Automatic annotation (TrEMBL):
<dbReference type="InterPro" id="IPR019004">
    <property type="entry name" value="YqeY/Aim41"/>
</dbReference>
<dbReference type="InterPro" id="IPR003789">
    <property type="entry name" value="Asn/Gln_tRNA_amidoTrase-B-like"/>
</dbReference>
<protein>
    <submittedName>
        <fullName>GatB/YqeY domain-containing protein</fullName>
    </submittedName>
</protein>
<dbReference type="InterPro" id="IPR042184">
    <property type="entry name" value="YqeY/Aim41_N"/>
</dbReference>
<dbReference type="Pfam" id="PF09424">
    <property type="entry name" value="YqeY"/>
</dbReference>
<dbReference type="InterPro" id="IPR023168">
    <property type="entry name" value="GatB_Yqey_C_2"/>
</dbReference>
Length: 153
C-alpha cells in the first residue's frame, strides 16, 4: 500500500471517528503528496524516497513551529503542532536511539576513513543518505561532530 493510499484510508477512519485534529494532520500530509505529484508531472506517483523526504520535511517544520510557539508562550498553538507531528511520525520509519545512532555513525566513520573534524563533510554526506528518516539532521550533525572531535573512537 502506498503512502497516499494509507493516508486516504486513515482520513476515512478519522472522519468516521470525528477526530478533527488527526483529520487536519492527515489532510496536510495528503496535500503535500498531491503537490509533489503535480510538481513531477503526475502519472506514476511518488517513490518511497520522495515520500520519506516529504514526511521528514513536514515533521521538521512542525517541530520547529512548536519550538517557536513555546518560546512565544503560545502553548495552545504549540500543542496543535505537536499533535500533527505525532501523526506524521506514525508514517516515518522508527527513529534511532542515541546508542544506535552512535554505533551506525562509528561504522560510517570507519568505512569513510575519517580521521578528524576536517572530514565532517564526507561523513555527513554518507550519514545523511543512509540515515534519512531514521534520525534528525541536527542530531546526526551534532553526533558526527562530537565523534570526530573525540579522537578515541
Amino acid at each position: 500500500m502506498t503512502l497516499k493510499e494509507r493516508v486516504e484510508s486513515d482520513i476515512k477512519q478519522a472522519m468516521l471517528a470525528r477526530d478533527k485534529p488527526r483529520l487536519q494532520a492527515l489532510r496536510s500530509i495528503k496535500s503535500l503528496i498531491l503537490l509533489a505529484e503535480t510538481e513531477k508531472g503526475g502519472g506514476e506517483g511518488l517513490t518511497q524516497d520522495t515520500e520519506l523526504k516529504l514526511l521528514t520535511k513536514a515533521a521538521k517544520q512542525r517541530r520547529e513551529s512548536a519550538e517557536v510557539y513555546t518560546q512565544q508562550n503560545r502553548e495552545d498553538l504549540a500543542q496543535i503542532e505537536i499533535g500533527e507531528l505525532a501523526v506524521i511520525e506514525e508514517y516515518l520509519p522508527k527513529q534511532l536511539g542515541e546508542g544506535d545512532l552512535r554505533a551506525r555513525l562509528l561504522e560510517i566513520i570507519q568505512r569513510v576513513g575519517a580521521t578528524g573534524p576536517s572530514d565532517l563533510g564526507r561523513v555527513m554526506g554518507v550519514a545523511s543518505k543512509e540515515l534519512a528518516g531514521q534520525a534528525d539532521g541536527r542530531a546526526i550533525s551534532s553526533a558526527v561532530g562530537a565523534l570526530l572531535n573525540n579522537t578515541d573512537f
